[in-house]
Specification:
With 130 residues, the protein is of the alpha+beta class. It has one domain: Nuclear Transport Factor 2, Chain: A (Roll). Helices cover 23% and strands 35% of the residues. The protein has helices at residues 35-48, 73-88; strands at residues 18-23, 28-34, 94-105, 108-117, 120-129. It is globular and about 40 Å long.
Length: 130
């Protein structure tokens, strides 16, 4: 299968209204989430998966950040914003992204931003090595 490389965000389809809750601090699954909490968890998961790297995930799922590692900041900053936006827009609960802020520290770039969902806004972020 050829990886997607277009400019149009891929669509994963209708997301469930209710999903299992993941407790990241205890590495456990417990309870259920819906609404804003479920959308926030989905964003966190999307940002933690490298697209095309795990056969368990659809090619439409995850981010494409590994190819940016080692690149100059002038290339990484706009690409990071574009790739993260493309990744989260695959979820039908996400309506957009905004408020991007970048911080370069040594050999890393941290990015914080807001993911706008149908339930409200979710604060998110990621970091990549230069």
């Amino acid at each position: 299968m050829i990886p997607y490389s277009g400019n149009t965000p891929l669509y994963l389809g209708r997301m469930p209204e209710e999903t299992f809750g993941l407790d990241f601090s205890k590495n456990r699954i417990g309870g259920s989430l819906s609404g804003l909490e479920a959308a926030e968890q989905a964003v966190r998961l999307i940002l933690s998966v490298e697209r095309y790297s795990h056969i368990i995930y659809s090619y439409n799922y995850g981010t494409e950040l590994s190819s940016l590692i080692g690149q100059p900041a002038s290339l990484v900053l706009p690409e990071l914003k574009r790739r993260v936006t493309e990744a989260v827009m695959c979820d039908d609960r996400v309506t957009g992204t905004s408020d991007f802020e970048f911080e370069t520290r040594g050999n890393a770039v941290s990015m914080s931003f807001t993911v706008n969902t149908v339930y409200g806004d979710v604060a998110a972020g990621t970091e990549i090595g230069l």
